[in-house]
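hiii so um. not sure if this is the right channel but i have a protein structure encoded as tokens and i wanna go backwards to a sequence. like what aa goes where. can anyone help
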């Protein structure tokens, strides 16, 4: 049953990539809510103690990305869509994740970035995450300049929401959303990146974490998966973590409070993607 669930999700999650050639894939990641993980915990304790499950989930996502060679922080821009496909397959095959919901939406884009944000906010549906903030995060993934014309881009964003995980009690639940937008970009007269008029595709797959599975298999998981702090793991899933400028830094207080003040905790800043370095 778990295998069937995983295979169905993989087919649906990757269908958006099968519809055409992807020239560039960029990624972002963040945590919404409190990171209850202890900075002093390591290895088996990360999986055994529900309070440490934000770090456990982030480590699992990072592990799947590394196995698929999906390394956006290291590579900046991914040009091989098979790498992204393999990342999704590995994530959805993990038996400690349970399918929550899935959405596929069309975005009617008119060639304007502000309209792009409004359309994303309008179509993005989540009972936990702020659509307007998600629209801003996707807008920040768009490049500022381009060296090539008429490119197919895939914007990927991973949100780990812990808002129902406060205290790690019996009712705790971590929700992970992997949302992607596939759209066409073109080069303007001054080499600026412009959104073409088009019908773009937005896909969102969400799953909850089965904490009992993590606790029961804590020893074996810790022997295979390198555990790391939540922030470090999520930053490794962010393209802009390596592309020039200084990394986004925050205090431990702001990192832990997350959405208590209605703010996302993003792990990147808006950067310029030097297309000439991609070897497209």
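sure thing!! here u go:
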């Amino acid at each position: 049953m778990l295998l069937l669930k995983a295979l169905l999700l993989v087919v649906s999650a990757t269908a958006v990539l099968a519809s055409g050639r992807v020239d560039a894939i960029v990624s972002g990641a963040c945590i919404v809510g409190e990171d209850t993980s202890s900075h002093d915990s390591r290895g088996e304790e990360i999986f055994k103690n529900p309070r440490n499950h934000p770090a456990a989930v982030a480590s699992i996502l990072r592990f799947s990305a590394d196995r698929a060679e999906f390394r956006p922080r290291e590579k900046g821009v991914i040009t091989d869509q098979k790498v992204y496909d393999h990342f999704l397959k590995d994530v959805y095959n993990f038996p400690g994740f349970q399918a929550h919901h899935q959405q596929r939406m069309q975005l009617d884009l008119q060639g304007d970035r502000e309209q792009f944000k409004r359309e994303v906010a309008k179509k993005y549906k989540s009972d936990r995450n702020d659509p307007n903030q998600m629209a801003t995060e996707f807008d920040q993934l768009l490049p500022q300049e381009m060296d090539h014309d008429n490119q197919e881009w895939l914007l990927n964003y991973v949100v780990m929401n812990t808002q129902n995980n406060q205290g790690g009690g019996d009712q705790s639940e971590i929700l992970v959303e992997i949302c992607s937008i596939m759209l066409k970009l073109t080069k303007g007269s001054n080499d600026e990146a412009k959104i073409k008029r088009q019908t773009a595709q937005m896909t969102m797959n969400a799953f909850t974490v089965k904490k009992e599975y993590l606790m029961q298999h804590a020893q074996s998981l810790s022997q295979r998966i390198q555990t790391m702090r939540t922030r470090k793991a999520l930053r490794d899933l962010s393209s802009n973590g390596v592309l020039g400028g200084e990394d986004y830094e925050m205090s431990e207080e702001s990192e832990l409070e997350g959405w208590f003040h209605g703010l996302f905790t993003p792990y990147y800043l808006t950067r310029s993607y030097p297309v000439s370095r991609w070897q497209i």
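oh and Confidence is low (pLDDT under 50) at residues 1-19, 165-171, 241-280.
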